[in-house]
């Protein structure tokens, strides 16, 4: 009793795997040649698999619903003695034309197999059908822009003989196609190289993106790849990137600085990444900027800081901006709201929990001050000081990290003026304060040195339109420019 | 209706050297020529009947057997592809009548230039089973010696073979022989420049060529209506080529139409265009899934017009197709399938990649020589990369 295995074939020109949708047979079943034994789904089609043997099913290798790589066995048959039709490979190959065809055929002409005509091979493009296959897990190469097709001169290793360090881009009279390609390409998706060189890189485990091509127009040569491979080996052996000889050439920076470091993504970094990515791709951001003369506001901060009531409290421009924001939010309640996608409702919060973005040793965190809108300026300054203090020391309580409704980020402390802040997920606005700078500014019809700050406000356009966002931002700016204007707002 | 009759009117008056108008089925004003209805009834068609008056019931049975056999060949080859024995296969299921009816009308000295789906035509020309499959198994760069069976190897480039056929036909004319070249192509190919150029050329030189279009309703996944606002057969008169539109699932109508066109060409009447209206019941190739683009119900609609079923009904009605005969025909088909499978798995020799350059031109060609050496160097460089 001999057995035969049937391996999953490539059912559709270049497929690497298929899913077993349904077995039509079970172990122990007797099947005939071409009897349908399974239904299989490829990236292109749902197809029935006919049995290549007659016999008894002795083993099924894959469960229904499992994905099988092309070439893996899926079923085994007991085919008895020598009765399997498909194994009849000894059958005569040359089959004379059937008798009913004989009248049309020129009789007795040997159908010569050797030396056939034109290269009419079936296309390997799997997009022979209109909709094309979906990209699979397998390593099938994707189509790419022509690169080597335009270089017929040295087909084997076109760049091998090119002098490293030659001024490649300026090399004279490139072919028309190359000109077109270069002028239209902003940045190539990957460095140019020929298929044999890519294969070499693959075999040596070299990432071509890390290789600087020394060939014609930046083409990566075989030597470049070998150099990179050698350099990496050296680096791993010698511990430090000593940058001896060729490896220095290929690395952008010399010495230790040239070595890449891989840091696992976790903790605060991971949480931040998830949060900002989620926010950036769900909330349509609009950012507006307003540059304000805050000299009066700064004067107020300075005089309050010197006053007995604020002795021991830490009042800064951040405190003033926070207060201005809280007052402005009262006039434009839309900014203190949340988009509830699931309930299809907009939640307008009854009070403001003010988040303050804080850079800590562990990364960015945004603790918030509960009911900040109910606090006096003095209490607010104390609360901000406490919040920042505990954030720096790493003792922020989890409660302080949740439930925020609005956020201020003070990027001015890093010396920058403006930016596009990303919303804390679930919030409608975020205000970035720029650095306060003394600069020439229009003041009462003249140019004077004034203290100037730029405010950047991002808002979720689903919740806040330009009208509300602008009003909110202008209100804050107005208070900072002329704190007395608060009298007109409350 | 009026459209069609106008077209035929136009056909007759515009054929420049088309011999007598009687060649082109006078009185045939229907939309489509049909001699055997789907229910098996034989209908009269004054323009076409004389061309098949000699066809006996035995002959019809032969055509029936041919269709059963090529359908079986097709089924077996599809199974071989699913079993990993062939890389690809372009099924002909549903187009048996169009291929057998036309293929059986030819003489051995006529020459066929086909696309990749004409396995039925290749069968009528006497192609060996291994030769039918070697191309799809990748064991040869082509299929067979064209001169041994009077049929070029399949053209994968859509429509390119129409130019080859026209050139061959011109050669026949210059040689003074009455052989005819037949180009087989599909509805989608009629949108190709090559096909249109071939028709211009054929009309200009009155080349003895038949443009045989199997309109199988689908250009891969595009329905024919997208690229043909009118019947495809309506295009040919614009080139000065008379055309016929026949039921491609009616083997007798196809036979008659092909005979008309052949006779015309042999007598110096120039090219003819035949649109055989049929249906591709399977996928474009084994790689695609027609369920993704075919409207539901369309297959059933065409299954009711199946080419084999209707001839079977006619022959049963005449008492020719008895149970015994049917069994014998099926046995023959199974034997062919078995033989073909054996021939397939015995094909093991893979061609040297460089042989693709060998028979493009009859003599040496410097451009090709250069390409060949470049390709050889490229292949060598891949070997070098193994290290």
UniProtKB/TrEMBL annotation, chain A:
Keyword Transmembrane among UniProt keywords: no
Residue spans of biased composition, Low complexity class: 158-170, 245-256
Pfam families tied to this protein: 2-oxoacid_dh, Biotin_lipoyl, E3_binding
One Gene Ontology term of the molecular function aspect: acetyltransferase activity
PROSITE patterns to which the protein is assigned, alphabetical: BIOTINYL_LIPOYL, PSBD
Keyword vocabulary terms for this entry: Acyltransferase, Lipoyl, Transferase
Protein family per UniProt: Belongs to the 2-oxoacid dehydrogenase family.
Sequence intervals crossing the membrane: none
Any one GO cellular component localisation term in the record: cytoplasm
The UniProt record lists the keyword Glycosyltransferase: no
Domain Lipoyl-binding: 3-78
UniProt protein name: Dihydrolipoamide acetyltransferase component of pyruvate dehydrogenase complex
EC number: 2.3.1.-
Species this protein is from: Mycetocola manganoxydans
């Amino acid at each position: 009793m001999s057995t035969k295995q049937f391996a999953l074939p490539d059912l559709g020109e270049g497929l690497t795997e298929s899913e077993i949708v349904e077995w039509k047979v079970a172990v122990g079943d007797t099947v005939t040649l071409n009897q349908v034994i399974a239904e299989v789904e490829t990236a292109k089609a749902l197809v029935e698999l006919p049995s290549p043997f007659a016999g008894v099913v002795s083993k099924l290798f894959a469960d229904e619903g499992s994905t099988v790589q092309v070439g893996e066995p899926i079923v085994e048959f007991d085919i008895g003695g020598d009765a399997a039709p498909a194994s009849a490979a000894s059958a005569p190959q040359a089959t004379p034309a059937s008798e009913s065809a004989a009248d049309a055929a020129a009789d007795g002409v040997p159908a010569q197999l050797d030396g056939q005509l034109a290269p009419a091979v079936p296309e390997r493009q799997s997009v022979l059908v209109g909709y094309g296959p979906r990209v699979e897990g397998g390593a099938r190469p994707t189509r790419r822009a022509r690169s080597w097709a335009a270089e017929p001169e040295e087909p084997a290793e076109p760049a091998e003989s090119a002098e490293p360090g030659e001024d490649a881009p300026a090399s004279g009279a490139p072919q028309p196609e190359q000109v077109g390609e270069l002028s239209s390409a902003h940045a190539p998706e990957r460095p140019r190289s020929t298929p044999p060189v890519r294969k070499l890189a693959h075999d040596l485990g070299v990432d071509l993106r890390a290789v600087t091509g020394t060939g014609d127009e930046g083409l990566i040569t075989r030597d470049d790849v070998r150099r990179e491979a050698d350099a990496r080996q050296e680096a791993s052996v010698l511990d430090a990137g000593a940058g001896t000889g060729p490896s220095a050439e290929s690395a952008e920076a010399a010495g230790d600085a040239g070595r890449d470091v891989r840091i696992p993504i976790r903790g605060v970094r991971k949480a931040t990444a998830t949060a900002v990515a989620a926010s950036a791709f769900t909330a349509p951001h609009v950012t507006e900027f307003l540059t304000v003369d805050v000299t009066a506001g700064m004067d107020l901060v300075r005089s309050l800081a010197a006053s007995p009531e604020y002795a021991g409290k830490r009042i800064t421009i951040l405190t003033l901006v926070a207060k201005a924001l809280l007052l402005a939010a009262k006039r434009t309640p839309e900014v203190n709201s949340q988009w509830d996608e699931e309930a299809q409702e907009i939640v307008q919060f009854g009070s403001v929990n003010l988040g303050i973005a804080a850079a800590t040793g562990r990364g960015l965190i945004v603790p918030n001050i509960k009911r900040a809108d109910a606090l006096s300026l003095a209490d607010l300054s104390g609360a901000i000081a406490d919040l920042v203090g505990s954030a720096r020391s790493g003792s922020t309580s989890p409660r302080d990290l949740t439930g925020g409704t609005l956020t201020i980020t003070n990027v001015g402390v890093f010396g920058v003026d403006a930016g596009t802040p990303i919303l804390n997920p679930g919030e409608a606005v975020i205000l970035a304060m720029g650095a306060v700078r003394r600069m020439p500014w229009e003041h009462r019809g003249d140019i004077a040195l004034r203290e100037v700050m730029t405010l950047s406000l991002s808002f979720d356009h689903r919740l806040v339109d330009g009208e509300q966002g602008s009003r909110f931002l202008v209100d804050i700016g107005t208070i900072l420019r002329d704190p007395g204007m608060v009298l007109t707002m409350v | 209706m009026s459209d069609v009759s106008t077209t035929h009117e136009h056909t007759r008056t515009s054929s420049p050297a088309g011999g007598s108008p009687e060649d082109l089925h006078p009185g045939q004003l229907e939309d489509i020529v049909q001699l055997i209805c789907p229910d098996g009834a034989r209908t009269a068609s004054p323009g076409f009947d004389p061309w098949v008056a000699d066809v006996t019931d035995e002959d019809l049975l032969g055509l029936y057997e041919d269709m059963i056999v090529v359908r079986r060949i097709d089924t077996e080859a599809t199974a071989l592809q699913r079993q990993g024995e062939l890389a690809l296969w372009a099924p002909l299921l549903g187009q048996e009548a169009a291929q057998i009816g036309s293929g059986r009308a030819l003489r051995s000295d006529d020459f066929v230039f086909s696309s990749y789906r004409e396995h039925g035509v290749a069968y009528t020309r006497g192609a060996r089973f291994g030769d039918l499959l070697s191309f799809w198994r990748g064991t040869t760069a082509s299929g067979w010696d064209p001169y041994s069976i009077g049929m070029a190897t399949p053209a994968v480039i859509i429509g390119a073979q129409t130019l080859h056929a026209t050139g061959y036909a011109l050669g026949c004319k210059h040689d003074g022989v009455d052989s005819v070249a037949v180009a087989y192509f599909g509805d989608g190919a009629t949108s190709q420049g090559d096909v249109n150029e071939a028709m211009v050329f054929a009309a200009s030189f009155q080349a003895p060529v038949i443009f045989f279009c199997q309109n199988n309703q689908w250009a891969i996944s595009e329905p024919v209506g997208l690229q043909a606002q009118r019947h495809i057969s309506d295009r040919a008169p614009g080139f000065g080529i008379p055309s016929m539109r026949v039921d491609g699932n009616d083997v007798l109508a196809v036979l008659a139409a092909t005979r008309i066109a052949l006779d015309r060409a042999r007598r110096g009447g120039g090219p003819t265009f035949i649109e055989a209206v049929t249906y591709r019941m399977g996928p474009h190739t084994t790689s695609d899934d027609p369920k993704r683009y075919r409207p539901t119900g369309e297959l059933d609609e065409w299954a009711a017009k199946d080419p084999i079923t209707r001839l079977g009904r006619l022959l049963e009605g005449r008492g020719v197709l008895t149970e015994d005969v049917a069994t014998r025909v099926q046995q023959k088909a199974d034997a062919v399938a078995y033989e073909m499978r054996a021939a397939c798995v015995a094909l093991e020799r893979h061609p040297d990649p460089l042989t693709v350059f060998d028979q493009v031109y009859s003599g040496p060609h410097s451009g090709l020589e250069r390409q060949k050496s470049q390709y050889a160097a490229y292949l060598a460089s891949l070997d070098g990369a193994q290290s």
